[in-house]
Amino acid sequence: MADNHPLIQPDRGQEAISIHLVNREGFPEWIKQLSAGQRAALEAQKFDGSGYQVGIVPAKDNAEDGWFAVGGVANPQDLSSWCMAKLAESLPEGIYRRADGEPGPALHGWQTAQYVFDRYKKPERPVGPRVLLTKNVKAIGGAVAEARAVCLVRDLVNTPAEDLGPAALEEQCEKLAKQHSASLTVTRGDALEQEYPMVHAVGRAAARHHAPRIMHLTWGKEGDPVLAIVGKGVCFDSGGLDVKSSSGMLLMKKDMGGAAHAIALAGLVMDAGLPVRLHLLVPAVENAISSNSFRPGDVLRSRKGLTVEIGNTDAEGRLILGDALQRASEEKPDFIIDFATLTGAARVALGPEFPALMTRQDSTAAALIAAGKAHDDEPWRLPLPDAYREWLNSDIADIQNAHGNSFAGASVAGLFLDRFVGEGIDWAHFDTFAWRPVARPGRPKGGDAYGLRAAWHMLRDRFGGG
């Protein structure tokens, strides 16, 4: 998004370029209202109303009299978040108005389509903001907040590990706390080793400027329902002593994508003034290789008191989440939700587009899936089968962090986390990719948010406010 530029603004009748939305089925009838010159202009652009097509049409046969835009969509009467995103990517700088109705959910994609990650490389041909007008003034604040939350996730995930280590995640939490007058506690060093021993063990091999820590932000009234949000903050994952291949390591700057989602979601909760007592927990580490790395075969003590045998040092995310989920459970929350780039198995099962969702309660899964479908951010539920719990048994410890077969990797990781969530607590776990390998309208290649909007709308519906 442009730097805090209001890409959607109230429609007060100001001068704007019209956008007409058509689909392929309705296009032959729609063009009958156009002049011969206008039809020829669209024909020259090979515009036929197919999805995501963009056409530029002179307002009259003489282009000096101005122009309007045409966008191809699946259904002009039932818009999605992304149906106007290609227009936002392709049109020149200016102010636009949908000609025959409101943009509705397309307000989201209009903004996210203009996202550019330019921290290290400036665009060769920068384009000014494309502003979309809406008469639904009440929708603007929420739509802007959601788009900025998505773009925050993108910024954090896209930033390389040298510039976004545990200290930088701490800075993000400090910024969030200051913005919302929240309280922030950061635990590191000897205190971390005592209070969050698995977080310390995973991160202890990193260089001093990437030392491990856990951030705990609290906000809201004491008497309100307790909501805990937890995010995996592995700022870079070498795999530890069970080292990844070079190709497997290449995208591991994104292994803090869960933390990015958690921070962005907490921001939405506080922006909207949701009536909850919020606890945001972000364990932040680098899983590095050094003489003091934790080892396969080690047995770690956890905050909960369970001992954990290490079967694979590359299954480290569940370790730091275990300590964080235990701390969240100590608040006796009404609901815990966590985000993590946890397993390759989830990607094998679902690909990059659908975040894997695991919950203890069917009603919670149904609410998250319904919210996701309604806002073009659908998760896919995977089970937490009791039959697989025995795969985490250890001969010498209470539990092991990696099972010895290749089956059901995402669900077994979820079962590991389940051991650290307090008994009877409603809990949802998102195993998200946090990366878009191929660009789509409104969704450029690179870091991206999956499940964030589903979670936000479910929380807003559940707790009210905003």
Structure class: alpha/beta
Residue share in helix: 25-40%
Number of helices: 15
How is the quaternary structure best described?
A: single chain
CATH architectural group of the largest domain: 3-Layer(aba) Sandwich
List low-confidence stretches.
none
Dominant shape: elongated
Radius of gyration: 24 Å
The average pLDDT is 96
Give a short account of the largest sheet: 9 strands, mixed
Percentage of residues in DSSP E strands: 15-25%
Counted beta strands: 20
CATH superfamily of the largest domain: Zn peptidases
The CATH class label of the largest domain is Alpha Beta
| Tally of separate domains | 2
| CATH fold group of the largest domain | Aminopeptidase
For the record, give the distance between the C-alpha atoms at the N and C termini, rounded to a whole number.
Answer: 23 Å
Topology:
Elements: E1 8-10, E2 17-22, H1 27-30, H2 36-44, E3 54-58, E4 67-72, H3 85-90, E5 94-98, H4 106-112, E6 130-134, H5 138-158, H6 166-179, E7 183-188, H7 189-195, H8 197-203, E8 213-219, E9 226-231, E10 233-237, H9 246-249, H10 257-271, E11 277-287, E12 299-301, E13 307-309, H11 317-329, E14 335-340, H12 344-350, E15 356-359, H13 362-374, E16 380-381, E17 399-400, H14 409-418, E18 427-431, E19 435-436, E20 446-447, H15 452-463
Parallel strand pairs: 1-6, 2-4, 2-5, 5-6, 9-11, 9-14, 10-11, 13-17, 14-18, 15-16
Antiparallel strand pairs: 3-4, 7-8, 8-11, 12-13, 15-18, 19-20
Helix pairs in contact: 4-5, 5-10, 7-8, 8-11, 10-15, 11-14, 13-15
Family: Belongs to the peptidase M17 family.
InterPro entries: Leucine_aapep/pepB, Macro_dom-like, Peptidase_M17_C, Peptidase_M17_N_1
GO molecular function: manganese ion binding; metalloaminopeptidase activity
